[in-house]
Design brief:
Layout: H1 15-30, E1 34-36, E2 38-40, E3 43-45, E4 50-55, E5 58-67, H2 71-88, H3 93-109, H4 111-122, H5 126-150, E6 154-156, E7 164-166, E8 173-177, H6 185-196, E9 200-204, H7 210-222, E10 230-232, H8 237-246, E11 250-256, H9 259-269, E12 281-285, E13 290-294, H10 300-312, E14 322-327, H11 329-344, H12 364-367
Parallel strand pairs: 1-5, 8-9, 8-11, 9-10, 11-12, 13-14
Antiparallel strand pairs: 2-3, 4-5, 6-7
Length: about 375
């Protein structure tokens, strides 16, 4: 198999790259305010109740209006995904992987468009948005290649004279509840990992960034994903999220977000409901305290630059954002003073401008 190199970051000091991004922002502007339906078994479902996605850098600008699922539609999506699983699980791993390779190729061709959409919908400055899209491409490539690696199982060399091996089997219907801070990379990565391994998915993206998820679902359709494998059901966590986490036919939940919501999902999913044949699996990626340690022999300028870039990149709205610096006493004052100097130099403003390092926070509650 051909070795894969990570999707490269875009060098925006190159004029042609800068112009390409500016053109992509214009392209995204041309389809602002559109309506996006739910997708259940390939069928477009429009509801009166909408999630309105707004530009956090310009609250008067509507990115799109996305139909909102209720419990009845969530149940319909669950039945569809459950039925589709019976044949999708038997599709050859090579065929499933090939869909991911095609989806990665489509996104690669539209890379700046997706990044520009992240700038508009999530308030990501150019470099942060570019990295998000690159990571989404990498996830599709990585999980497809992992599937090809794991499809024949693994031999277990336990003792002479015995032949042992284990294989991987698809689980069933997975509920993916994705975050707004990496609204493309984590949303796409958790979804395609489940799909390529033979599971079907109910995708409930973050309510602040549902348009990029709708665009991703369209890409998966174009890549040849059969109807019913991926069902797009944005909606309220209290109404749709809880209902699906509790559902007896949910096999696993993949969640990225806050500690409060993650622990709540973990607790609810641990209960066995009537008709449930298994214990649900929960993958919960939540917030953390991230530390940079600075030794006295370190490159202190690099350390200070790294602390500032990590702490304030995307306004610090990342589980990977540096929230704690541990600095040896001998160089503490030197590093601290340089961090303060660099922080004062941060350019804040509209993320559509290439010079902006730090844009808005995602919404009013984050601001408060």
């Amino acid at each position: 198999m051909i070795p894969y190199k990570h999707e490269p970051f875009t060098d925006f000091s190159v004029e042609s790259n800068k112009k390409a991004y500016e053109e992509s922002l214009k392209l995204v502007n041309s389809y602002l305010g559109l309506d996006y339906p739910l997708i259940i078994g390939g069928e477009r479902v429009t509801t009166d109740d909408k999630i309105v996605s707004i530009n956090p850098a310009n609250k008067k600008e509507i990115i799109g209006r996305v139909s909102k699922a209720d419990q009845e539609l969530a149940e319909k999506a669950m039945k569809t995904a459950d039925e589709t699983f019976n044949h999708w699980r038997k599709v050859k791993p090579e065929v499933r992987a090939d869909i991911l390779f095609r989806a990665a190729a489509i996104v690669r061709r539209r890379k700046h468009e997706f990044s520009a959409l992240l700038t508009k919908e999530a308030g990501k400055p150019w470099k942060e948005a570019d990295a998000d899209t690159a990571e989404a491409i990498d996830f599709m490539e990585f999980y497809a290649r992992q599937m090809l690696k794991l499809k024949d199982g693994v031999s277990v060399e336990s003792r002479p004279g015995e032949y042992n091996r284990y294989g991987y089997i698809p689980l069933g219907v997975g509920v993916v509840i994705s975050p707004w801070n990496f609204p493309f990379a984590i949303m796409a990565g958790t979804t395609v990992a489940a799909i390529v391994t033979g599971n079907t998915v109910l995708l409930k993206p973050a309510s602040t960034t549902p348009v990029v998820a709708a665009k991703f679902v369209e890409v998966m359709e174009k890549a040849g994903l059969p109807k019913g494998v991926l069902n797009f059901i944005p909606g309220s966590g209290a109404e749709v999220g809880d209902y699906l986490v509790d559902h007896p036919r949910t096999r696993f939940v993949s969640f990225t977000g806050s500690r409060d919501v993650g622990t709540r999902i973990y607790e609810r999913a641990s209960k066995v409901h009537p008709g449930q044949k298994w214990l649900k699996r929960v993958i919960a990626e939540m917030g953390g305290k991230d530390t940079i340690v600075v030794d006295k022999e370190a490159d202190l300028e690099l350390a200070a630059q790294s602390i500032v870039a990590s702490a304030f990149g995307f306004s610090g709205q990342k589980c990977s954002a540096c929230s704690r610096a541990i600095v040896l006493e001998e160089v503490y004052d030197q590093v601290l003073n340089r961090v303060v100097e660099l922080t004062k130099e941060i350019s804040e403003g509209n993320p559509e401008k290439p010079s902006t390092f730090m844009g808005p926070v995602i919404d009013q509650s984050a601001f408060d």
